[in-house]
Specification:
Number of helices: 8
Oligomer: single chain
Shape: extended
Strand content: 5-15%
Strand order of the largest sheet: 1-2
Radius of gyration: 21 Å
Helix content: 55-70%
Amino acid sequence: MLIGTVLGTLGMVDYYGAGVLTIFIFYFFRGRKWWCLAGQLLALYWVNVQLLGGLLYPVHIFGMEFEICQQGLALLALIPIWLYRGRQGYHSKPFQYACYAFLSRSYPDPYADPAISDPLTAIPASANICKTFYSSH
C-alpha cells in the first residue's frame, strides 16, 4: 500500500497518493456488511478531511458556527456508491438527449467567446487584485 501511494505521487495520478489510497480503501472494505461500510466511511473521512483537508466553509446554524471541510463533502459520494446494485439504471433516448442538452448548457464552448478562450487577455491589467489590495493599504 505504501509503494502504491508513493508511485501514485511520483506518477502524478489524480489526487496523487491519496487517490491510490482511496482505491485501496474500496478494495479492502468491499462488500455490503456493516463493518465494510463503516470502514469505508471512517477511512475515507481520514483521507479526505484529515489528509487532504484544505478549504473550510463557515456555516451558521441556530446561532452556532461550524466549519465544514470542502474535501469532506466527497463523503456524500458514498450514498450513490452504496445504493448501486450492479444493474444498469434508467435509460431512454429522450432522457439521454435531455442530459446532453443540460450538459451543453452547463459547460459553454470556450472557443465561442474569445475572452473565455484566452484567460490571460480576458482580465484587464487594472483588475489585478493583489496590486489593488496592497496599494490601498
